[in-house]
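seq:
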Amino acid sequence: MTSTTLTPTRRRRGLQQRGLVPLLLGPSVVLITAFVLIPAVYGIYLSFTNTQLTGSAARNPKFVGLDNYAHLLTSEDFLGSVWNTAQFVFFSAIIGQTVLGMIAALILSRKWLRGKGAFGAAVLLPMVVPEVVASLTWASVLSPSGDGTLNRFLDVFGAGPVAALQGAPMVCIIVVNIWRGIAFAMIMFQAALEDVPDELIEAARIDGAGPWQVFRHVILPLIRGAVFLYLLLTTITTVGVFGLVYFLTQGGPGNATELTAIFIYQRAFQYSQIGLGSAASVILLILLLIFGLTYVRLSKVEV
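struct:
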């Protein structure tokens, strides 16, 4: 009797819950469609045209097929920007932020350590600084004049002033990006480390495993998913870094720090070649999709 009387009620609740799903997801679907999907599709369309901001191509753009892609794939400037982006992502995000973020997370996971609050705040501080403010601050630090913070520090040891942004521009932007990204890595890794059972670590230590062996064979396999998820997110965000590098070097000196994002901006807005810039964006998107699928496969995460 009870089961037969509850069945209609449960069905009504199920129908009500199913009715709430489109109501709750509807606004986000509309926003994603309007601000992500439609611009992406339109950008792909533009990549097959010679659309420009000025001239006859602005009034009457023509379909040019794969000409923009053929031009980019044989352009030394574009291929050089892809290579610069690969170096920037590998050394600043995949190596620098990941390693230093993991070290910071391991330090904060030590219960016996004092002063963790101050250490964590110091690491988190760069994350809350606006990108423009961070760029201008580092421009002052790396200024080639004697008033630059770096040169003032070197002057204490009797060393002459250096022009770091001119002498080693790629190293400078890598260091600055590491400085800004450590906080995000630390937060993700610290959250993953909290789920590692203390019993497994203690058992490994009792068996004679050292700190590196415990990390390599116990902790790292358990947080593998979080590590690859972070690598995926940081690769996507670092490839899209624009303001931080543009305010510091504007892609120079020469093309030494011209990342693909800067190349796209210059071609699309400075040189008014919207079609060419859109094609470069599509190529960059394809590369990101390849990296994303690779990370998902390596982490063995079901998606």
